[in-house]
């Protein structure tokens, strides 16, 4: 029965000849319409492989829902002789890359983060952060087109719960202004059709650094078109590690003046439950309700011991505990959708969220003489958010496809900070109020036009206007802010050949990055590794354990961006890409550590706070390739795929004196290489990934200089399909246990530290199935 279904012809609905959707989809796939002719009796494996190539390279992407809904006239039916109906795997359009459901399934990855790390267009910093265009701190991550609820990271979701991932270069009118480098939009499976119960479980070792994860989802559907379902994700982790620090009173030369050994441990527990329901009111209207319940706890404990030339300000023993908890975070959404007969749809949404969260740091230090100091910081926050949105999508007017939207959002935060020194309330309440609150109102309207200028050129115009008003209470005088932001964006896409295999896209966009309201709070948080000596006043502290405080004069960052990309289809599914990006950043925000005269100390004290450092430039070049062996070999061959990329990034902060006045955590050169091998005789997939980062050095305006050594990370996995509905996988991470080194030097104070960390290798066993 299975072989008969594979060999049956499948019917695909194609847009009418000459329509803009047909041209756009053909441009994305780079192949156009395909007619299949089999001249001789090939083997079943050869037919199956050839059919998969044809279907993946043809214009049959099922996720192009908007284009399909925009059709007014009846569609012609075109019969394609194939043996499968997979959706297009990796789709490239003007300014956007879409990783479809098939691509996610075939990745055999544990999380969305693992999928993105392999893509040539995605930047992975040396610290493991995900970003675009070499700017990891300026990339926006969305869940279903919205900011994710507190405690739920879309990058940690399993790919089985995701319908597609959209990688959008630069800022667009629809995604908002805060995506200076771009947006990663993780879209979950809508599941309007029935979905059987799917679940997966993971166990990771070694025993001293283990974790467990469970995920499940299901959807039920009635005869009237209504549906109900749920998604569950639970995670338990017990991290463990060690850091060795060497320190010098001066430049890092000769034997260190002290040696510190730190043992880290912690616990990370999270649970998210997302029920949903959808009702079909009539042929054109539908109503859906979605909710999120999230509870999360992150805790880290550090126990340090120093040996050597330790002065009075350098304790011999230090215990530092950091924790963050949200219990719980609730979010509810009600969405109404109406399909329009003339094309497109109306969409309106109301959402409400409540979050109670707390963060605390506590520490105890002990010197040579046995004197013990204790300190505890607590920060409790209550968040409320309300949002209303109206959108008109897929409005077709000739060769134009229009969409617009309006949005209003209000967020209020109440914060209470408390510090105890040696068990007594601190004196900081005399200078700063322990109570702080903020309210932010945001009103925006945006419009976009997708216009097929000709058979080979398409243009996307966007314009977004936002008005933001903020009020912060936490000082003697409240801080009020009013901002009017206007951001245009333009994207061109040009097919350079008649076969539509080479596509050039150019994008220009305006972006903003708004500071969090609580980063305006000047009340300090005393570092438990360098606490005050008494509840009455603080003395001096160390530059490697500074106090942290906000900056009430902080201004938003603004940018202009240019992106140029050339995507080419060599043959079949083998592709190459070249990308160039440029960003001009104004009022760039950096965390600077400097020695300041502060009201809570009779001596100058080291304080870390955000500052605007003027203008910065960032430039990037990316070369990527994805090659499939079957596209180049005439004889049938096992499935072998090779992918890789080279990414160069340069940046310059004008206000910082060079050399090395670059943005932090931006690797000058990153190389990624991946291999996937699908066994010919057994249902086994083997993957291997390498990521290498060049050594990097940067400095800030306060004279702080940091250096990181070159780093190489190797991971590998094997996936065995035990049946058509279940599989088992083994993933190995950090298989090359190379030492990670970071050197920090404080200019003008003759103080240096060198941290050495060796990540642990781990194995993860995953079992997934559907019922």
Please describe what this structure looks like.
By secondary structure, this protein is mostly beta strands. The protein folds into two domains: 79 residues, no CATH class; 681 residues, Beta Barrel (Maltoporin, Chain A). Helix content is 6%, strand content 57%. It is built from six helices and 40 strands. The strands form five sheets. It has a 22-stranded antiparallel β-barrel. Strand 32 and strand 33 form a beta hairpin. It is globular, with a radius of gyration of 28 Å. The N terminus is likely disordered.
Task: Give the total of domains.
Answer: 2
State the fourth-level CATH superfamily of the largest domain: TonB-dependent receptor, beta-barrel domain
CATH architectural grouping of the largest domain: Beta Barrel
What's the CATH class of the largest domain, please? Mainly Beta
Number of helical elements: 6
Shape: globular
- The chain-level mean pLDDT equals 82
Describe the SSE topology.
Layout: H1 2-7, E1 10-14, H2 20-29, H3 44-57, H4 65-69, E2 76-80, E3 90-93, E4 96-99, H5 101-107, H6 112-118, E5 122-124, E6 130-132, E7 139-143, E8 162-169, E9 182-188, E10 195-205, E11 210-221, E12 227-238, E13 240-248, E14 258-280, E15 285-308, E16 317-339, E17 345-366, E18 372-397, E19 400-421, E20 424-425, E21 435-452, E22 457-473, E23 479-495, E24 502-513, E25 547-548, E26 557-571, E27 574-586, E28 589-596, E29 605-612, E30 616-628, E31 639-653, E32 669-678, E33 684-693, E34 696-699, E35 704-708, E36 711-723, E37 726-733, E38 740-746, E39 751-757, E40 762-770
Parallel strand pairs: 7-9, 25-29
Antiparallel strand pairs: 1-2, 3-4, 4-8, 5-6, 8-9, 10-11, 10-40, 11-12, 12-14, 13-14, 13-39, 14-15, 15-16, 16-17, 17-18, 18-19, 19-20, 19-21, 21-22, 22-23, 23-24, 24-26, 26-27, 27-30, 28-29, 30-31, 31-32, 32-33, 33-36, 34-35, 35-38, 36-37, 37-40, 38-39
């Amino acid at each position: 029965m299975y072989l008969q279904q594979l060999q049956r012809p499948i019917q695909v609905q194609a847009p009418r000849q000459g329509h803009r959707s047909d041209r756009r989809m053909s441009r994305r796939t780079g192949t156009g319409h395909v007619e299949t002719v089999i001249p001789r009796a090939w083997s079943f494996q050869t037919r199956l492989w050839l059919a998969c190539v044809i279907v993946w390279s043809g214009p049959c992407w099922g996720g192009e829902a908007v284009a399909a809904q925009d059709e007014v006239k009846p569609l012609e039916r075109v019969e394609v002789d194939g043996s499968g109906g997979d959706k297009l795997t990796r789709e490239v359009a003007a300014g956007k890359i879409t990783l479809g459901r098939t691509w996610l399934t075939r990745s055999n990855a544990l999380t969305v983060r693992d999928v993105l790390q392999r893509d040539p267009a995605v930047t992975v910093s040396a610290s493991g952060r995900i970003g675009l265009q070499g700017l990891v701190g300026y990339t926006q991550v969305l869940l279903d087109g919205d900011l994710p609820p507190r405690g739920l990271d879309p990058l940690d979701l399993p790919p089985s719960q995701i319908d597609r991932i959209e990688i959008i270069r630069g800022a667009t009118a629809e995604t908002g202004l805060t995506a200076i480098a771009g947006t990663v939009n993780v879209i979950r499976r809508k599941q309007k059709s029935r979905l059987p119960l799917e679940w997966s479980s993971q166990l990771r070792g070694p025993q001293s650094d283990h974790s467990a994860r469970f995920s499940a989802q299901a959807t039920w559907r009635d005869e009237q078109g209504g549906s109900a379902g749920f998604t569950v994700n639970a995670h338990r982790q017990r991290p463990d590690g060690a850091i060795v620090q060497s320190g010098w009173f001066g430049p890092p030369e000769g034997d260190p003046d002290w040696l510190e050994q730190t043992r880290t441990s912690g616990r990370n527990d999270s649970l998210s439950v997302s029920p949903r329901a959808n009702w079909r009111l009539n042929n054109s209207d539908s109503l859906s309700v979605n909710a999120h319940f999230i509870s999360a706890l992150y805790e880290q404990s550090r126990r340090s011991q120093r040996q050597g030339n330790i002065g009075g300000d350098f304790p011999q023993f230090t215990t530092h505990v950091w924790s963050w908890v949200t219990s719980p975070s609730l979010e509810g959404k009600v969405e109404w959708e109406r399909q329009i007969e003339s094309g497109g749809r109306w969409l309106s949404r109301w959402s409400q969220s409540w979050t109670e969260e707390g963060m605390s740091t506590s520490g105890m230090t002990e010197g040579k003489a046995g004197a013990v100091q204790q300190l505890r910081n607590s920060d409790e926050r209550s968040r409320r958010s309300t949002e209303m949105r109206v959108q008109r999508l897929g409005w077709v007017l000739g060769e134009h496809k229009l969409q617009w939207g309006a949005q209003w959002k209000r967020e209020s935060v109440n914060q209470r900070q408390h510090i105890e020194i040696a068990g007594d309330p601190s004196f900081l309440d005399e200078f700063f109020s322990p109570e702080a609150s903020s309210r932010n109102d945001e009103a925006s309207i945006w419009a976009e036009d997708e216009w097929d200028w000709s058979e080979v050129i398409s243009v996307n115009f966007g314009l977004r206007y936002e008005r933001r008003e903020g009020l912060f209470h936490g000082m003697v005088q409240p801080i009020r802010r009013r901002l009017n932001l206007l951001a245009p964006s333009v994207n061109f896409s040009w097919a350079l050949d008649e076969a539509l295999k080479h596509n050039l896209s150019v994008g220009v966009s305006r972006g903003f990055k708004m500071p969090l309201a609580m980063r305006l709070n000047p009340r300090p948080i005393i570092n438990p590794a360098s606490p005050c000596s008494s509840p009455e006043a603080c003395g001096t502290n160390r530059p490697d354990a500074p106090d942290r405080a906000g900056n009430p004069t902080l201004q938003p960052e603004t940018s202009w961006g240019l992106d140029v990309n050339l995507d080419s289809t060599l043959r079949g599914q083998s592709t190459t890409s070249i990308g160039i990006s440029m960003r001009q950043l104004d009022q760039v925000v950096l965390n600077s550590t400097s020695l300041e005269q502060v009201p809570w100390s009779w001596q100058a004290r080291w304080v870390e706070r955000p500052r605007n450092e003027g203008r910065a430039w960032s430039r990037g070049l990316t070369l990527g390739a994805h090659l499939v062996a079957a596209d180049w070999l005439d004889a049938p061959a096992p499935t072998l795929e090779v992918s890789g990329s080279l990414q160069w990034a340069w940046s310059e902060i004008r206000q910082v004196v060079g050399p090395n006045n670059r943005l932090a955590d931006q690797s000058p050169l990153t190389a990624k290489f991946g291999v996937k091998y699908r066994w010919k005789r057994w249902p086994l997939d083997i993957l291997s990934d390498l990521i290498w980062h060049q050594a990097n050095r940067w400095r800030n305006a306060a004279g702080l200089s940091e250096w990181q050594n070159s780093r190489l990370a190797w991971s590998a996995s094997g996936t065995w399909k035990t049946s058509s509905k279940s599989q088992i996988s083994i993933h190995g991470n950090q298989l090359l246990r190379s030492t990670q080194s970071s050197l920090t030097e404080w200019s003008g104070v003759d103080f240096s530290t060198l941290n050495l960390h060796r990540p642990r290798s781990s194995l993860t066993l995953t079992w997934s199935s559907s019922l």
